[in-house]
Amino acid sequence: MRTGLVLLHGFPLDATMWEPQKSALSEHLTLLAPNFPGHGEAPRAGDVTTMDAAADYAAQQMRVSNLERAVICGLSMGGYAALAFWRRHRNMVAGLVLANTRAGADDDAGKQRRRDLAQRLRAEGNGFLAESPPPLFSEKASPQLWDRAKAIIRAQPAEALAADSLGMADRPDSTPDLAGITVPVLVITSSGDTLIPPDATREMAGRISNAKFDVIPDAGHLSNLEAPAEFNRLLSEFMRQFE
Ligand code: MLT
């Protein structure tokens, strides 16, 4: 059986952000890109989408696809959920890829910002976020790339984004779990990530024994979209050990 690769998306997006990986890697890998609850086909999981709920939905989708074990790859919010997946379903985890993410929880100010954002999303819809998204890319990103990300943001239900935001605010500190990770791990960051600075991701990698750590140059937060060739190369190389 081919090794599975499960891709968990970032915020404020959905699984369509993985298109450059799906088109390049599906021929060689069994790829699954489940949405977070409330996005696309995935049923809502209440007013707050906890990282546990996102991990459980991904595990359920693996079972539906007869995928017993897979490499769980999460970018940013997807990385928070990948660490929840490790805590809750580790017998299904062959390896982890943690991209542009961090292990720590938010401080009080950060939690409040997420709650304020959720409130605004519920009051106004997601138009303001699609028009003025967070710094998802580096300064070098093309207008076309920004348009693509904005179109994905615009397609998300505001309720789902609000629930994601509240779920991220409530997420626990995953730092204590890092030393106990026993599967192969690839950690990716990018030099132009201003949302989750490379140092935060590097620190997480340093706490995982034998994690492979790579920095993609000249790309911002959504490294899989801004530097797909390099992201796919790192992913393919890492996946080779599971063949
Ligand atoms: C993401 O890309 O998923 C977000 O930047 C994560 C976050 O807001 O912490």
Principal-axes geometry comes out as globular
Order of the strands making up the biggest sheet: 2-1-3-4-5-6
Rounded mean pLDDT score? 97
H and E order: EHEHEHEHHHHHEHEHH
Structural account:
It is a single chain. The chain has 243 residues and is of the alpha/beta class. The chain is 45% helix and 13% strand. The protein has 11 helices and 6 strands. A 6-stranded parallel beta sheet has the order 2-1-3-4-5-6, with helices on both faces. Helix 1 (19-25) links the parallel strand 1 (4-8) and strand 2 (30-32). It binds D-malate. D-malate binds at residues 10-11, 76-77, 168, 195, 221.
Describe the structure concisely:
The chain has eleven helices and six strands. By secondary structure, it is α/β, with parallel strands linked by helices.
